[in-house]
Amino acid sequence: MAKPIAPRTTTPADLGFSMPAEWEPHAATWLGWPHNETDWPGKLDTIRWVYGEMVRHICPGETVRLLVRNQTEARLARRYLTRAGADVACVEFIVHPTNRGWTRDSGPIHVHRRKGRKSETAIVHFHFNAWAKYDDWQKDRKVPETAARLLGRTLFNAQCHGRDFVLEGGGIDVNGCGTVLTTEECYLDPKVQVRNPGLTRADYDATLQRYLGVKNVLWLVAGPVGDDTHGHIDDICRFVTPRTVVLIREGNSKDINYHPLSENWERIQDLRLEDGSKPEVVPLPMPKPLFFDGYRLPASYANFYIANAAVIVPTFNDPNDRVALGILGELFPDRPVVGIHAVDLVLGFGSLHCLSQQEPA
Fold this sequence. Notes:
The chain contains 10 helices and 20 strands.
């Protein structure tokens, strides 16, 4: 089915579209089968079993649309998922060559609108460029086009001042009512991993409002060290209800993360939601420092994914695993909160949320 392309002068907000919150009903979750050896040196086979656990917990509530490079890879993925006990009948294998499997950032970001009893979903193309860090992103950038064509949905071309606008799904988090969270470290740093050279905070605010259908943008400061994305919000602060966020906190004043994460706690006291109210803030602990080959990994419990049938949470063989699962369990009483071992996964500088992208129902 051919994909409709929205006129360049038309934006989702113009037509009443907005991005739903992650806890709202999904039609599917998008994943990309892992194949890039450089993301998980020597551990790629282990990561395939992590995917098995992810799919096993997601499939009871929704379809999984799994990007594979070819039919050979589809057969390989099917074998792993079957042996892991996942219901492969709910998995749709989509052949699309990719550079990496971080589908949160390169996958289709959906917006939704209702007109009376009818509803419509569209896709925004935010022009992924591998976090302005790596040279191999050309295949990943085409994923939203493939998704729009496959699903027969309108594709909005995100632009600012006549240029393609770069954004990753892990760099934003919405409450579904008009507010989006992001960070200065990720999008306003003038020297490091600059996604959109020359754009100001006001440019970002206006572009996010136009393409996500939000009313206001909340800027936190920075994230934990070791983050390959340079400050993605999904390692730091997440909406769990329209008015409540979890925010990571480092309790050890000698830890390198203590001061930047404390700045976020100072900043959030002054931030307001779309209706002018203060968000309720729930602290989420950090695991003890996790190192591999001498470098710090960005291990964070904030990188959970909210599926229809479960909330899957990265765990790190740490005493705070139980604390984090307990906090999130109380915040999501409508679905089970399940820990998935992520010590090997975070070697790729990301975790469960980074790998997944929701498709609204």
